[in-house]
Amino acid sequence: MEGAMQVDTQIRTEPGAEAGPGGPGCSLRHFACEQNLLSRPDGSASFLQGDTSVLAGVYGPAEVKISKEIFNKATLEVLLRPKTGLPGVAEKSRERLIRNTCEAVVLGALHPRTSITVVLQVISDAGSLLACCLNAACMALVDAGVPMRALFCGVTCALDADGNLVLDPTVKQEKEARAVLTFALDSVEWKLLMSTTKGLYTNAELQQCLAAAQAASQQVFRFFRESLQRRYSKS
Amino acid sequence: MAEAAAIAAESLAGSKARAARTVLGQVVLPGEELLLPEQEDAEGPGGAGERLLRLNPGARSRVRVVCGPGLRRSGDRLLVTKCGRLRHKEPGGGGGGGGVYWVDSQQKRYVPVKGDHVIGIVTAKSGDIFKVDVGGSEPASLSYLAFEGATKRNRPNVQVGDLIYGQFLVANKDMEPEMVCIDSCGRANGMGVIGQDGLLFKVTLGLIRKLLAPDCEIIQEVGKLYPLEIVFGMNGRIWVKAKTIQQTLILANILEACEHMTTDQRKQIFSRLAES
């Protein structure tokens, strides 16, 4: 109990913008977030994780095409734009993962027959892109005032050849890794909302990664809270 | 990793259900749980989760609590669904808990609410109804008979593109919103087609609520500056008209800028404008 308290306060004293060396590889790169930076969308946010940066815009609850209308809930759409060129299969697959995560937390039943569109623009990819997209999408949804059950965040873990765990890996670490796992977690019970994995890992390693992601998610949620408090301190 | 799990458990217990009274005026996030004053005694820090068995559970719910925007009820629990500052209004009788709780958020998108006064733009005329764009997810309908003095013979003069100041008669998530430009006595009461000229611009919904608050000094200050006509729509639209175009633009710029200024900054600006 005492020990847990100590670790907890240690994490709390760490500045949200810069994660200190919590353990070997068990630290996140520094975050930065700006909200309401675009004038046209109903909500927008840019999220930085190290050198990975994603800009998100949310439109909604807005008018929906008849063909996409769902009579008892809002139609959620996620568009992921790569840095250059047109979105391909990889983007479509990520869009689906992000959409499923958003659908789990957005209270769509409160706005039936409307559309909520999340547009994500990749600005730079330096690893853990999906996690950064999830974080940007969450902040933009909060900024737009879309009713949600909970906040959510994305955490990427990489396992290298020796079985060492690296949180929030860079592109180089991702390439060298034996397995890369990305989790989406909610802010109420820290339960898993979405997971996507690539590579080989054992059952124990999965549990280990999940536990590390849960611990890291609290740091992210603490950062979310600080960032939102800063936004509302102006008014 | 057991340590990590322990942290999770610790914070889980720590961040669970704060008392609504202690977080008034503070920022709340989606997913947070709030405790009402009546629940505090049973589940508060002293209670340690051990609830006393009540002999008469029906008797305690005499206080009426209303959940405003940004909050929802799930069984006995009060959950936050939007980010913003938690606000509370005591019930009319005063004291004794209860009242209205809501979250004051800085949202841009309008969702129609029954009874709200809004500014709409007529987008279509079809038979005996007008379609009015109010910034919501679908256009509102407005009957041609819902104007003061309108009869089947005497149709109101409304063209596509006109601005309408009206009130929502029907607004819920399952039905098309319906507007009227008369009150229950059949009087216009300031509503109807907004005249030619003037300037329409959009601001956030939070700013509109701030400007329409009964003790808002911004409006009084603005009124001292120039003679003006102004209409506020709860959907974030403001229509303003002064004697000259220049004055109209100055007023629009001041109102837009008011959102992120402190009271002192505002006073400075108004005194500088009064001099010139």
TrEMBL record, chain A:
Every Exoribonuclease phosphorolytic domain range: 28-147, 151-215
Domain of life: Eukaryota
Key word Nucleus present: yes
Subunit structure: Homodimer. Component of the RNA exosome core complex (Exo-9), composed of EXOSC1, EXOSC2, EXOSC3, EXOSC4, EXOSC5, EXOSC6, EXOSC7, EXOSC8 and EXOSC9; within the complex interacts with EXOSC3, EXOSC8, and EXOSC9. The catalytically inactive RNA exosome core complex (Exo-9) associates with the catalytic subunit EXOSC10/RRP6. Exo-9 may associate with DIS3 to form the nucleolar exosome complex, or DIS3L to form the cytoplasmic exosome complex.
Predominant location: cytoplasm
GO cellular component: cytoplasmic exosome (RNase complex); cytosol; euchromatin; nuclear exosome (RNase complex); nucleolus; nucleoplasm
Organism encoding this protein: Loxodonta africana (African elephant)
Matches recorded under InterPro entries: ExoRNase_PH_dom1, ExoRNase_PH_dom2, ExoRNase_PH_dom2_sf, PNPase/RNase_PH_dom_sf, Ribosomal_Su5_D2-typ_SF, RNase_PH
Family named by the database record: Belongs to the RNase PH family.
Lineage, opening ranks: Eukaryota, Metazoa, Chordata, Craniata, Vertebrata
UniProt GO MF annotations: DNA binding; RNA binding
GO BP annotations listed: defense response to virus; DNA deamination; nuclear mRNA surveillance; poly(A)-dependent snoRNA 3'-end processing; rRNA catabolic process; rRNA processing; U4 snRNA 3'-end processing
Subcellular location(s) of the protein: Cytoplasm; Nucleus, Nucleolus
Name listed for the protein in its UniProt record: Exosome complex component RRP46
Region (Disordered): 1-23
Encoding gene, per UniProt annotation: EXOSC5
UniProt keywords, alphabetically: Cytoplasm, DNA-binding, Exosome, Nucleus, Phosphoprotein, rRNA processing
Record has Nucleus as a keyword: yes
Automatic annotation (TrEMBL), chain B:
GO CC entries: cytoplasmic exosome (RNase complex); cytosol; euchromatin; nuclear exosome (RNase complex); nucleolus; nucleoplasm
Listed SUPFAM superfamilies: Eukaryotic type KH-domain (KH-domain type I), Nucleic acid-binding proteins, Ribosomal L27 protein-like
Domain K Homology: 198-245
InterPro entries: Exosome_RNA_bind1/RRP40/RRP4 (IPR026699), KH_dom_type_1 (IPR004088), KH_dom_type_1_sf (IPR036612), NA-bd_OB-fold (IPR012340), RRP40_KH-I (IPR049469), RRP40_N (IPR048541), Rrp40_S1 (IPR037319)
Chief localisation class: cytoplasm
Protein transport in keyword set: no
One annotated GO biological process: isotype switching
An example molecular function term from Gene Ontology annotations: RNA binding
Transmembrane annotation, as ranges: none
Domain Exosome complex component RRP40 N-terminal, chain residue ranges per copy: 26-106
Pfam families given in the database record: KH_6, RRP40_N_mamm, RRP40_S1
Keywords, comma-separated and alphabetical: Acetylation, Cytoplasm, Exosome, Isopeptide bond, Nucleus, RNA-binding, rRNA processing, Ubl conjugation
Subcellular location: Cytoplasm; Nucleus, Nucleolus
Family label: Belongs to the RRP40 family.
Complexes and interactors: Component of the RNA exosome core complex (Exo-9), composed of EXOSC1, EXOSC2, EXOSC3, EXOSC4, EXOSC5, EXOSC6, EXOSC7, EXOSC8 and EXOSC9; within the complex interacts with EXOSC5 and EXOSC9. The catalytically inactive RNA exosome core complex (Exo-9) associates with the catalytic subunit EXOSC10/RRP6. Exo-9 may associate with DIS3 to form the nucleolar exosome complex, or DIS3L to form the cytoplasmic exosome complex. Exo-9 is formed by a hexameric base ring consisting of the heterodimers EXOSC4-EXOSC9, EXOSC5-EXOSC8 and EXOSC6-EXOSC7, and a cap ring consisting of EXOSC1, EXOSC2 and EXOSC3.
Full protein name: Exosome complex component RRP40
